[in-house]
Amino acid sequence: MEQLLAQYAANPLQTRGRNHVESPPVARSEFQRDRDRVIHSAAFRRLVYKTQVFVNHEGDLYRTRLTHSLEVAQIARTIARAMRLNEDLVEAISLSHDLGHTPFGHAGQDSLNTRMRNYGGFEHNMQSLRVVEVLENRYADFKGLNLTFETREGILKHCSLKNAATLGKLGMRFIKRHQPSLEAQLANIADEIAYNNHDVDDGLRSGLINLEQLTNIPFFCEQLEWVRSSYPNISKTQTNHEIVRRMINVSITDLLNTSQRTVDRIDPSSVDEVRALEEPLIGFSEPFVEGQLAVKRFLNEALYRHPRVQRMTEKATEVVTSLFDAFIEKYDRMPDEHAQLAHQSHKETGIPGGARIVADYIAGMTDRFALQTYEKL
Ligand code: MG
Q1: How many angstroms separate the alpha carbon of residue 46 from the centre of ligand 1?
Q2: pLDDT tens digits, one per residue of 68-82
Q3: Which of 103, 123, 175, 350 has an alpha carbon within 20 to 30 A of 116's alpha carbon?
Q4: 73-110: burial string, b at 16+ Cβ within 10 Å, e else
């Protein structure tokens, strides 16, 4: 297997290792083991009831964070295999990249961040790392999932310099302005491809946006015209899907071709050489970056700021903020296990310690559990 990897791919035999030393896995690689641990984690199962744009109870047809993560893994693996990068590692990163997300997508994370402002803030990226390093509490020998450096490096897509300074080796690249592995770079962009396209897809299905609006985006217009002229008699559902699947395909092809050209030109001889570079090697072509920006701008205006989505955002803010205030006021409003942790952390480091446990508890909630808890309080 390892011979099939490119020289610049992350090699599980040369992993920078795990925080807690373990014996090597049998019949699978270190990165496969990481992926498997993610799949068996409680945080991964909860992704099924967490949303990106639409709240979970809105309808069963929309993406959840779980299906989103699977789509990211699919896209990233396709490109990884074509570029002879490590497919297991991109899969492990893709499946774990959103583990730290709060309920209700970005609205939830923003409200939690606001409430945590004086206690160290809240970043979903840092929280994903916290989930795999601390919060998953299932193994006898260690805290968290004890994943390899490479998977954790990929999970930490971005982070403030202040946070980076507290993360040791993992935070170094933000301070030195270095890059992560190509697998990490790839999972990051696969995330973008997945959500841009599935948000268009979900947006169309929900009726909040329509095909006519897409004609203003050159990128989509091309596919729309092609599909309409090739298949004038197909249903609306088929039309939507034919456009979106073409969009994903075009995105993957551009990313693959552009990245492979860049990698061939720079020709790094190892993953460490990739890490030492100032610029990432995985990326779209210039015109494609422009196109993607147009899609993002459109989604921002037409979908994310749609009055119906806006109402959900307001509700989410209200729920998360109220939960935080209620728990901070009285830790015992949380279940025993969390309340005890909060009291203990509070004793050690004051309110910031207690607040962090409250944030962990809220961030771990699914959309519906957060709503239920809010109603009860
Ligand atoms: Mg994501």
Answers
A1: 15
A2: 999 999 999 999 999
A3: 175
A4: bebbbbbbeebebbbbbbbbbbbbbbbbbbbbbbbbbb
Residues 148-171: what's their mean pLDDT?
Answer: 93
- Which two tokens mark 246? 């073409």
Distance from the CA of 144 to the center of ligand 1, in angstroms? 21
Burial of 131-165, coded b for 16+ CB within 10 Å and e otherwise, reads bbbebbeeeeebebbbbbbbbbbbbbbebeeebbe
Distance 331 CA to ligand 1 centre (A): 31
Closest among 51, 146, 60, 62 to 106, alpha carbons compared? 51
At residue 64 the predicted structure's pLDDT band, cuts being 50, 70 and 90, is confident
**In CATH, what class is 2-308?**
mainly alpha
**What are the C-alpha distances in Å from 231 to residues 213, 228, 234, 243?**
20, 5, 6, 11
DSSP annotation of 177: T
**Residue 173 binned pLDDT confidence (cut-offs 50, 70, 90):** very high
Residues 143 and 152: their CA atoms lie apart, in Å, by: 14
* Centre of ligand 1 from the C-alpha of residue 278, in Å: 24
pTM of the predicted model, to two decimals?
0.95
Of the listed ranges 67-81, 174-188, 216-230, the least confidently predicted one is 216-230
Per-residue pLDDT tens digits for 109-147: 999 999 999 999 999 999 999 999 999 999 999 999 999
Interval between CA 98 and ligand 1 midpoint (Å): 5
Whether pLDDT at 258 is above 90: yes
Question: What are φ and ψ of residue 199, in 5° steps?
Answer: -70, -35
**Per-domain boundaries in the chain:** 2-308, 317-376
Q: Give the Å distance between the CA of 25 and the centre of ligand 1.
A: 29
CA of residue 68 to ligand 1 center, whole Å: 7
